Automatic annotation (TrEMBL):
<dbReference type="GO" id="GO:0003676">
    <property type="term" value="F:nucleic acid binding"/>
</dbReference>
<keyword id="KW-0489">Methyltransferase</keyword>
<protein>
    <submittedName>
        <fullName>DNA adenine methylase/adenine-specific DNA-methyltransferase</fullName>
        <ecNumber>2.1.1.72</ecNumber>
    </submittedName>
</protein>
<dbReference type="InterPro" id="IPR029063">
    <property type="entry name" value="SAM-dependent_MTases_sf"/>
</dbReference>
<dbReference type="GO" id="GO:0009007">
    <property type="term" value="F:site-specific DNA-methyltransferase (adenine-specific) activity"/>
</dbReference>
<keyword id="KW-0808">Transferase</keyword>
<dbReference type="GO" id="GO:0032259">
    <property type="term" value="P:methylation"/>
</dbReference>
<dbReference type="InterPro" id="IPR002052">
    <property type="entry name" value="DNA_methylase_N6_adenine_CS"/>
</dbReference>
Length: 329
């Protein structure tokens, strides 16, 4: 959601300034994994962590994975007729997001993916998730039904999920490279991460907006479920989009987010920190800087003009903001 790829040159400089000797880096809220990917390119042994499951699969495929790619036979097999009669996607999401053919493809593809293991499985699942995100208007799963009003002529909305999958596999294949040191992935709350094992920590927590919410599960529940074929998930059947239950943290509420930042900074007191945050979110710059200065002492703030990829209609002025990079040695 945060279009972090546009900030990579600024983040690369911040990381190099704070940890010129490289070493172990933690991407504590990894999301799309693009910053973890940058850290790997810079030579860090990066750990990608997120409390949602599908970012872990994405990071496993594109960051932890050094050299595994699917063969043409693998792709052909995943796109071939189903191995079993599973129909969860067709039953659960009929008329919600995708066409019947698209939903049938997801069921069929997973019948093959379920037999795979290791990084090959991660690449396949990550490609399925990226295919679904590209196929869905705006890439979020809060809208359903007749989606024609979101059709702006993009090619992504014309391709079937099967066609998307083949192209997204090729995207991952181009991205895979062997890093100088091993990388890793974890799934869990940031408070569960060991605090003192790092030479650099990058923090990109959910932004608390002035209005609305920052519930990533609400926006990406379909990708979360798809990453494990909803195994063990509790479906909220009363919701139109078949949501998964919200994951509540201290970053979820404007009432508790300042305390969340205080605990986060204290957790990584002994480690150089880079915090990325929006100027149009709570707490504001002065509060954030004050909280960080209380723990770390020295703080440098770099301001980067930034435009988010969501809310692209002409009246969506809130997407044009300053991204704040707070550096604390």
């Amino acid at each position: 959601m945060g279009s972090k790829h546009r900030l990579l040159p600024h983040l690369a400089q911040a990381f190099a300034d704070l940890a010129p000797g490289r070493g172990r880096a933690l991407d504590a809220f990894s999301g799309s994994g693009v910053v973890s990917y940058l850290l790997k390119h810079q030579g860090f042994a990066v750990r990608s962590n997120d409390y949602l499951g599908f970012p872990g699969v994405v990071a496993a495929a594109g960051v932890v994975n050094d050299d595994v790619r699917l063969t043409d036979e693998d792709v052909e097999r995943i796109c071939s007729p189903a191995l079993d009669d599973r129909d969860f996607c067709r039953r659960t999401f009929d008329g919600v997001f995708f066409t019947p053919d698209d939903l049938a493809f997801l069921d069929s593809a997973w019948s093959h993916v379920a037999t795979m293991s290791g990084h090959a499985r991660s690449v396949a699942v990550a490609a399925l998730c990226l295919a679904a995100a590209r196929r869905q208007p705006r890439g979020v799963f809060t809208i359903s039904g007749d989606l024609s009003r979101y059709d702006d002529g993009r090619r992504d909305l014309r391709l079937s999920l099967r066609e998307h999958f083949v192209e997204r596999v090729a995207d991952y294949h181009r991205a895979v490279f062997t890093g100088p040191v091993p990388c890793s992935v974890s799934t869990g709350e940031v408070g569960e991460v060991e605090p003192g094992a790092w030479d650099l920590v990058y923090l990109d927590p959910p932004y608390a907006p002035v209005s609305d919410d920052n519930d990533y599960t609400k926006r990406f529940h379909f990708l979360e479920g798809l990453s494990r074929y909803w195994e063990g998930d509790e479906i909220m059947w009363e919701t139109r989009t078949r949501k998964l239950p919200k994951r509540v943290t201290k970053f979820s509420s404007r009432r508790t987010i300042e305390a969340a930042f205080g605990e986060l900074f204290e957790q990584f007191r002994a480690v150089p920190l880079v915090l990325s945050y929006s100027s149009h979110a709570l707490p504001d710059r002065a509060t954030l800087e004050g909280l960080l200065r209380e723990v770390k002492g020295e703080v440098e703030v770099r301001t980067v003009p930034h435009t988010y990829s969501y809310g692209t209609h002409r009246t969506a002025v809130r997407r044009r903001v300053d991204e704040l990079l707070l550096l604390a040695p």
